[in-house]
Amino acid sequence: MLFNSLEFLLFLPLVFFLYWFVFKKNILLQNLFLIFASYIFYGWWDWRFLLLIFLSTVMDFFVGQKIYQNLNVKKKARYWLWVSMAFNIGMLGFFKYSNFFVDSFIGMFSSLGYEIKSTWTLNIILPVGISFYTFQTMSYSFDIYYKKLTPTKNFIAFTAFVSFFPQLVAGPIERASNLLSQIMDKRSFKYEQASGGIKLILWGLFKKIVIADSLAPIVDDIFANYSTYPASSLILGVCLFSFQVYGDFSGYSDIAIGTAKLFGIELMSNFKFPNFSRNVAEYWQRWHVSLSTWFRHYLYIPMGGSRVNKTKSVRNIIVIFLVSGFWHGANWTFIFWGGLHALFYIPVFLMGRNRMYADNVVGEKSIFPTPIEILQVLLTFMLVTFSRIFFRSPTLTDSFQYMNRIATDFSYEPYVHPMGYRMADFYILLVFFVIYEYLIRKDERNPFKFKSKVVRFLLYAVIVLTMLLFYDDEINRSFIYFQF
Amino acid sequence: MNKFLIRMVGYTFLILLAMEILVRVLHLYTEDPPRFIDDLGVEKRVPGLNGYAVTGNRNQNFSEFKINAAGFNSYREFNPSKSKYEIALIGDSFIEGFHQDYFNSIGKKIEKKLDSVEVYEYGYAGYDLANQMHLIYAYKNEFNLIDEIIIYLNYESDLGRGEYEPNFGRIAMLSSTVFKMRDNIKLLAYGSKIGILEPIKKMFSNKGFENNTNIHSNALNLEKQYLENFKSLAKLYGLDKCKTTILLDSRKTSKSFLKYCEENNINYIDFAKKFEDTTKSVTLIYDRHWNNHGRKLIAEFIVDFIHNKKNTDENCNQQASSTQLTK
């Protein structure tokens, strides 16, 4: 079930009313109902996916207990941690990466002159959101192993934690310490929280419908026909893709966080205006925060993080980014994309500037950013956008050819929308979007933080109107990150 | 909770109200003049209405229409007489032309190029050949006075039936309270136009599947059926071969149908080459109707045809008086 579908429009109020009016008094019933609603939500794609998520839930619930029981015997605890990892990564590997490994293996032998027939390639459906919930359940095992968390004995609450529908298919990837504890506690309805949720849903829908969906046909057209377009259009294509993927994924996260708020649950922030980052390190503190902190906590720090010598730290950074790239998809393009980010990050790290913007935003103490900040933001945006050529292209060859056309055959021609729409509409839209995001850059959880009720109401009206003006019923409304 | 629910309802209402105002002020909605079926069973628009037809979310195509006394979108009234030279242009939405200003229609473009000619545009969205031939038959007194009849045939969609039956059900549905509400609440009209209501329609209707089944039926059988339907219509409503010409696009028309026309001396004019030869787009951006360039080409094409016909077909005009538009 998509957030931007009619089914969800009917599903959400129904679940909301039953949750608060029918099952409110008994937390066990409320959590059972949450599981039921979440399984309906997830099974809407394919009921068979439910078996997987249930299996993952049972496994990690059981393994969590085992890790905890053996914490005094480090070897045994580690053994159970490995069981959890082997199961989750095995499941992920089978459903997401098996064909990639088979194809890469065949490709490697072909390049050496040996022809192998691809008989092992399997016709596997990738279960939606598998990368997200496997990472979430793994974090539970890790937290118990690192003694940050005591495992729950409440299987119902744990199942609700794994399957909580707002963030099930595309995050934020929650930690048990945050989400599970809220699910175990009795929730009470708070007006401010629920109204904040509605505002986030509205803002998320705006980003999805107006920014991501309206740019999608342009990006698809340019990337599909890059060999026929001049360099100016190729640059435009990848810049618009930057906005598209941001609108799509951050829009999803906002809707997820907003929806969770309606049920009295606070999810972690996933996007903190990454387009205003002043270097690549800051970008990764603002883009897909739940994933980057996951890698930081469960991979980078256990490997030694930055507490080891510089060489090992650089190695750790490279590993993190390559794994992060590979997490995104079973394709060499994503690994390359990750590698490129490692290359961008390492100089920032070596200069000791990787944490310097952790606690402040661009234009922290003034209305306007300084000229230096503008240059920093533009440079970071350019680097990140450039790397997205790999992220968006279907193969490495396409990525290199795309870049090659920009570098060797620079020419300008005005781009014509594939459906003939006036391109100026989109440029104006993006300018206003960037300006508005700049205005609200200090609080990603409150996109309408204006004191005047009239101003707020006008904003709601403008946003709804813009959604109507850019709505396209023929567009594929799925979210980009579902494929990961 | 009560505060939340009350505010939610209140804000929703206020935002819908604001949207209704904005949609009206910006004229984002399209107008669809009401339809009816007259005493002769002809489906048409209620006469005397003016308004604007809008295409696209953002007013990408904005055009004025004017329904004349005959119930069709046209800059002129239809008063055929023996003393004038009239051309009747009959067809569906392409001829009705709600996506063009009524004063810049195909008919107007033809009149500008031909002296002393009146073009009567009998266009109506949804007309198929059965509607068109029944129209000529029902208004035979007028059409007997008209010198040239050009029927626009969209082969793929216009030959689905071999006999005309007025669609009272459709008219009743369009006049129902639900549709009146849609037309009067401009936000609903706009939402319906841009497809926001499509998921709701799909949820409550499976008609789309039925249509798909029809589309996928055997193409050869369909060709035969279309031809039989055409023969049936000609038999039922008559076809004045001398002054009637079918305007078609051979790229979308079956060879067997064209062959039948040739073998039976049924005139047709094919604008496929005219469209193929142009480098500019002939259709609108936001829908598949002809744009101004497309309409210009069609008008030029018809003008050339009329010139040629006037020069070469004197005999036929003399015979025309003896041809009967009878059942």
UniProtKB/TrEMBL annotation, chain B:
InterPro entries: SGNH_hydro_sf. Keywords: Membrane, Transmembrane, Transmembrane helix. The keyword Membrane applies. The chain crosses the membrane at residues 9-29. This is SGNH/GDSL hydrolase family protein.
